[in-house]
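Working notes for the structural subgroup meeting. M.R. asked for a predicted model of this chain before we commit to crystallization trials. I am recording the input and output together here so anyone reviewing the notebook later can reproduce the run.

Input as submitted:
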Amino acid sequence: MFKEFREFVMRGNVLDMAVGIIIGAAIGTIVSSLVRDVIMPPIGLLLGKVDFANLFVVLKQGGTAGPYVSLADAQTAGAVTINYGTFINTIISFIIVAFVVFMIVRTVNRARRQLEAKKVEAPAAPTTKECPYCFSKINLNATRCPNCTSELK
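Returned structure, recorded in C-alpha cell form:
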C-alpha cells in the first residue's frame, strides 16, 4: 500500500496539482489584500465613508452593551454578529480570483490553438512522376514508362 501511495504521489499530475494549489493560495492572499486594501476603500468612500469590513448586524449584545463602532469592538465585547461586510469582501475576492483563472485558462487555450494551427502537416514526398513522353503517371523509381515503354533518365 505504501508503494502504491508513493507511485501516486510521484506522478507528474499530482506534483503539478500541488504546485498549482500552492500558487493558488499565494494568489488568494494577494487578491485578498487587493480587495481589502486597494479596491474596497475607494468603494467605501464613494458610498459615504463606509468600511465594508465593519458592516455587521448584532444578534446578541456582548459583555458591554453596544452600539459598537467597529467589528473588532463587537467581537472584543463578545457580541454575536453577522459580518455581512466581510462576506461582501470575500465575494469580491472570489470574483477577482475567478476572473484571473478565466484569463489564464483562456490564454493557455488560445496558445494551444495557435500551436496546433502551426503544426500543419508537410505534404508527403511524391511517389510518382510524369512520363515526359506520354504524360502518364509512373513510379518515381521507374527507368521505363510502362505505358509507352520509353526509357527514362
